[in-house]
Amino acid sequence: MATETTTPERAPARGGGDPAPRREGAVFNVFSHGFLWLWALMVIIPVAWIVVTSFKTSREIASDPLGLPAALNWDNYANAWTNGNIGDYFLNTIQVMVFSVSGTMLLGAMAAYVLARYEFFGNRIVYFGFAAGMMFPVFLALFPLFKTLQNVSLLNTYAGLILVYIAYSLPFTVFFLTAFFKTLPTGVAEAAIVDGAGHYRLFFQVMLPMAKPGLIAITIFNIIGQWNQFLLPLVLLGRNPEDAVISQGLANLALRQGYEGDAGALFAGTVLAMIPIFVAYVIFQRQIQAGLTAGAIK
Amino acid sequence: MKHGRYPFILSFLALPVGLYAWLVILPFAQAFQISLTDWSGSTNTFNYIGFDNYANLFKDDRLVIPALQHTGIILVVLPVVTIALGLFFAFMLNLGGRSRQGRIEGVRGSRFHKIVFFFPQVLSVAIIGILWKQVYAPENFGGLITGALTAVGLPAPANGFLADKRFVLAAVIGVLVWSAVGFYLVFFSSAMASIPRDLYEAGIIDGAGRFQMFFKITLPLLWDSVQTAWIYLSIVALDVFVLVYMMTPERGGPDAASEVVGGVIWKYAFNDGEQAFASAIGVVLFFAALTLAVVSLRFGPRERIEY
């Protein structure tokens, strides 16, 4: 360890430290690296293994779980896409999410902006009403929600599912964006007001563009959350299997696989469903990690 | 600018609040109401029967009692294991590396580890369920663990881990921990990043080892985050169901060995047509979550350390 340093202002009085802690440190390093790699492998191996398995024939899957496939069996992917309807499920999900995500963002930003920037009677009540929604166990509402949609003929429709997605995404979105709008500087807003901007122009032309980083983080969060939604479509979109969204369709495929025994197509479908999430994750992993964890920090 | 303030506020709040009240608040309120009736869910007639459903809840040894026990186990094990692993990994990645010139840094490759560890968090429960069901599958269905155990000559459960009463709950908890650790690693990492490095440098000068630094410096300063993580994981633990639904035989089996409260609500509501009884279980779950949140906020550290 060098005693001369390039950053003298940070260098402590004793550059090297005692030999004893250093030896302890070396053992500890091996141990901690070992653990980190062990966990990394525990994440990578099952995912990589299912990718490999998705190229095997059904016979290979059962007889040789650890081996490599004799040949890349693309049939599984063709089966998953056509017979397993994964392609349709993709389109269904996108159809729903175009509206549900933009609706969530628009309504969420509007509510959060007003709650963050305007003092009025009931402000706190509305805010805590939204925030409390993050804690509700969703099972409790499933059946009344089913009946509510049935009463207005929105059960088993995309419109109904879109409205429900928006409503159930609002708590976290409002909670997160309220905190974000509060951090924006007031100076710009005041200048805009002096220039004669009204409340609406101030929001759409000044505040929304300024809130862009927060809006992007929470949009990604909502895309992932709604893409992965399972329980709500299972209950509210259950009647026509061909209308299913991706997670639900995959679960149907898993159920059918029990009868038809086409395990290869199931894993190919699973991999297909993983790909968009994986690509989005690799590209946006910083924003995703920041967005997901920021909500947990009060 | 005072002009038109209230119309503006109203116009911006009406839609989000209306939708939220209609589809979130109202159904929850209705669930409370339903729990006081004998409604099956399919007819239009019902009577108010007071708290009978709640009284009968704890007499149901077929589903409710095992479910309460299992959810109780998950409620203890999931937060403890996940937070312990999350803290350990976060400490390693941020501060566990060699101290160069007395400075503290993370181990090499910490960015890579963070990306990998966090990945399960973005996968849907449906995907995780399918993935792990196959990992735990019996050998003649091509299970990964059973296959690997047999390959090195160790005994493996003949019907796989999920069809075995002894292993099924542990197997489910394992998957829950697997998917949650990455999130808390990143969560604790960002909290650790805000602890001033001077404190650790002072610790090194005073001859503190890594264990001491972790328990004497990091942990006390991270207490708020640990508490938040605890509440989050408790809510996750109470809501466990989809994974059980996707992975286990009979959606809670074998022999109710992996039955959880969420699954029992599901079964009574959508299989057995006992809507009122299902709602009563849900209300109990709701108050359990509320109590946990209040209690853990109450019994947190009384004084906040400023730095």
Automatic annotation (TrEMBL), chain A:
Feature: compositional bias, Low complexity: 1-10
Localisation: Cell membrane
Entry-linked InterPro entries: MetI-like, MetI-like_sf
A cellular component annotation (GO) from this entry: plasma membrane
Subcellular location, principal: membrane
Coiled-coil ranges (or none): none
Residues spanning the signal sequence: none
Protein name from the UniProt record: N-acetylglucosamine transport system permease protein
Lineage summary: Bacteria, Bacillati, Actinomycetota, Actinomycetes, Glycomycetales
UniProtKB/TrEMBL annotation, chain B:
Signal peptide: none
Keyword check for Cytoplasm: no
Compartmental location: Cell membrane
Superkingdom, natural source: Bacteria
Spans traversing the lipid bilayer: 73-95, 115-132, 167-187, 229-248, 276-297
ABC transmembrane type-1 domain location: 68-296
Membrane topology: Multi-pass membrane protein
Protein name per UniProt: N-acetylglucosamine transport system permease protein
The species this protein was found in: Glycomyces harbinensis
